[in-house]
Amino acid sequence: MEFSYHNPTAIEFGLGKISALSTLIAKDQKVLLVYGGGSIKKNGVYDQVIKALENHTFVEFSGVEVNPSIETMNKALEIVKSEKIDFVLAVGGGSVIDGCKYLVAAAKYDGDAWDFLDGSAEVEAALPLGVVLTLAATGSESNNLTVVSKRETDEKRMYFSNFSYPQFAIMDPSVLGTLSDTQLANGLVDAFMHTSEQYITYPTSSLVNDGYAETLFRGLAQLAKTWEDRRTLKWQENLMYIANQALNFQIGNGVPQDWSTHLIGHELTAFYGLDHAKSLAVVLPHLLRVMMDDKGEKISQMGEKVFGITNDNEAVIVAIEKMITSVGISIKLSDYEIDAQDVVISRVTKALEEHGYTAIGEKGNVTLDKVSKILTMSMN
Ligand code: NZQ
Ligand code: ZN
C-alpha cells in the first residue's frame, strides 16, 4: 500500500443546504453561475441559488449540454474573461461540473485548453470552483477528474488534476426528486461501475478498500432491489451519498484500478451518443467474462460478500447483469440503433489506438483484440 491523498472539497449534505452558498463564496468574488439545459428552473434549484446569492455580484451562463463540449465551454470562457470572473459556480450534474472544471483551468491558460485533454499540457492554475449537485452519479462534485468532448472530432477525453477539485459541493438530496427514472438508473449503474473499476481487479491485502467497496456494492444492490421506493427521500439520499463515495477515489487508494470499461464506454458515447452509464453497462459484463483469468478471484470475493454466491463466477456476472437490467438498463449494444458490428468495432478500436489506449486495464492486458471480443459479445 502506498498512496498520497488530499481531497480538499468541503461537503454540505442535507435538506436546505443550498442556502449555505451565501457564506461559502466570499462577497467580493464576482461569480459565474453555470448550468445546463434548464432543469434547475423547473425544480426550484435556480430560485434557491439566486436567493442565496442575493448579496453577490454574478452573471449566468446556461446551455451546457450532456457530455459537455469544449465548443460550448469556450463560449463561457469568453464571458469569464470579459466579465473578469473570480469564481465559477456549477449547478447541475456531471456534465455541468466537468464543463466547469475545464473552464476554470482554461481561464488560467494561454493556449488551447484541449491540450489538457490530449495530454500535451498539465493544469498549473485554475479559478476557484463550487458545485451545487443536482444529479447523483459521477462523483465529479468532489473529485479531480474532468471528462469533456470535442464535437469537431467526435472525441471524448479525460484528465486528472488536483486543480479540478471543487472548493465545496452542496448536496441536497431533495433536488433529485425531478430526475427521470432513467437518470436515477444511470446514476445507480455509474456508481456501480466506479466501484467495480477500483475493486474487480486482482486481490490485494487492503482490508479498508475491499470492505468499503463491498459496502458500496451492497448499498447499490439494495437500491436496485428496492427500485419501487426510488421516489422516496430515503432512497435518493442513499444514492446521492453512495455515488459520491464511489468516485472520490478513496476506495482506489493504494490498490490496482482497471478503468477499461470507462475508456471503451467513452468511445461509444463519442460516436453514438449513448448515456454515460449505458455505455458502461454494455461493456462490463462481457469484459468480466473475457478477463476471467485475471479477475476471477475478485469476482468470486464479490460474489460471496455482495450477492451471497459461492464458487460460481458465471452466476456472479449474471447477478450483476440482473441488477443492471432490473433498473431498466440494457447490457447489450445490439439494443441500440448504431452501426453494424464490424463498423462499431473498427471505429472504437481505432479511436482507442489513436488515444494511446492499446493495452488498458489493471495489468495492461485489455488489448484491442480483447476489446473486439467484448464488443462482439455485446452485439450478439
Ligand atoms: O442540462 P440539465 O437541464 O441540467 O439536465 C440534465 C441532463 O439533461 C438532467 N438533470 C440534472 N439534474 C436534474 C436533471 N433533470 C431533472 N432534475 C434534476 N435534478 O439530467 C441530464 C443528465 O445530466 P448529466 O450532468 O449529463 O448527467 P451525469 O451526472 O450522469 O454526468 C454525465 C457526464 O459526466 C461524465 C460522463 O462521461 C458524462 O459526460 N463523467 C464524469 C466523471 C467525473 N468527472 O468524475 C466520471 C464519470 O465516469 C463520467 O465519465
Ligand atoms: Zn462513470
Uncertain parts: none
**Ligand roster:** 5,6-dihydroxy-NADP, zinc ion
CATH architecture of the largest domain: Up-down Bundle
CATH superfamily of the largest domain: Dehydroquinate synthase-like - alpha domain
State the major sheet.
6 strands, parallel
Query: What proportion strand?
Result: 5-15%
Ends distance:
41 Å
Briefly summarize what is shown.
With 380 residues, the protein is of the alpha/beta class. Helices cover 47% and strands 12% of the residues.
Structure description:
It contains 16 helices and 10 strands. The protein starts with 9 loop residues before the first strand and ends with a helix. It is globular, with a radius of gyration of 20 Å. The protein has 2 domains: 165 residues, Rossmann fold (3-Layer(aba) Sandwich), CATH 3.40.50.1970; 199 residues, Up-down Bundle (Dehydroquinate synthase-like, alpha domain), CATH 1.20.1090. By secondary structure, the protein is of the alpha/beta class. It has a 6-stranded parallel β-sheet with strand order 1-8-5-4-2-3, covered by helices on one side. Helix content is 47%, strand content 12%. α4 crosses α5. The mean pLDDT is 97. Bound molecules: 5,6-dihydroxy-NADP and zinc ion. The site of 5,6-dihydroxy-NADP has 33 residues, from α5, β6 and α7.
